[in-house]
Target: DUF418 domain-containing protein
Amino acid sequence: MNKLPVQPKKRIELLDVFRGFAVFGIFVVNIEIMNCVFMNQDVFSKQWTDPIDTLTTRIFQLFFYSKFFPIFSFLFGLGISMQALSMSQKNELTFSFFARRMLILFFFGVLHILLLWSGDVIHLYAILGLFVTLLIKKSNRLIIGLSVLFLIFPFYDQIAAYAFQLMKYQPESYLSGYMPETIVETIRNGSYVDGIRLRANEYMANIPMLFTFLAPVALSMFLLGLYFGKNSLITKMNVLVDLLKKPVIIIAIITNLYRIIFLFFLPGFEIYKSPVARPVFLKLMFLSDVVMGLFYLWLLAWLWYHTNARKIISPLKYVGRMALTNYIMHSFIGLLLFSSIGFSLYETMSPSETLFTALVVFCVQILYSKLWLRYFKFGPLEWVWRCFTYKKLLPMKK
Model:
């Protein structure tokens, strides 16, 4: 039997709004990293002392850092489960289908790393997504239990670090030939091939962080999304929003108070430097950021169902329907802005300038996505992904 993708008319608008919002938040964080690689961030950030840049940095810390990756991951797991549920109802659910779908996504991620930006996450999503598909038919208790375990398990990073030691993996060796000034020169004035070489080395250097810090978060959120999709909770959001209102607000207040204490008060105390207490403080901060990300989704849903703000946030759905295309487009724009094939602005933009650029680019993406979807069923990369997944040339025009 021929498998066909979910048609646009069956889409849940709020889910696309969620995706559009996640794409925006990820770009706000990523463009700052594109402007200065991780290894240079500490020195680079100290030069921006203007009040507007200080305020922007606080906005990043309070509202963006570590909050949108969990959202994006949750939505990815939710998407997998909703498609699996739809296929299961038609007796079309097979592991080979999802294996092929994840393999294609993995290749997208590899090309993204080499050609555009080393900070890709979709290849990681492909690897973890393949594991998650094995759990689709498992019990709700197991799925939610694993989600909580991967999120709060306190020794995962030590185990992962030990595994890298056993493999004798030395991430620092990949960037040993790159001094800070060498990186600046390579990105601003080097050839495109030099950029590919740097991106490959930077990715290899970041692998421990990718699989030690980001992977468990992504997997936890995948499983939470799987739970939501498997139980069709996304179609009951109007009920859940009201049902969860009180506990969600209380938890959001508590976690935000902790985040403010951690960022602005705790570093002044000696206990903050304690080798025993500091990991606990960091873990609590990380959990608070994840909670804040999920709170954003609840808040968007509440605005969607209960206020006139629905008209304001509704345009996010256009970007959300083309999430993969717009996510990759961000890296292409970053390449043009910061590298030698474009404007060579690497390490020249202040925090306020990167935030402003992200806002402008995203507004353009809303308009572009709306115009594109007026004539086509899918975004260009979404269409390519579907064609390879279903092994047929699918109609694109409406």
Notes: The chain has a mean pLDDT of 92. The chain is about 75% helix and 0% strand. Residues 8-390 form one domain.
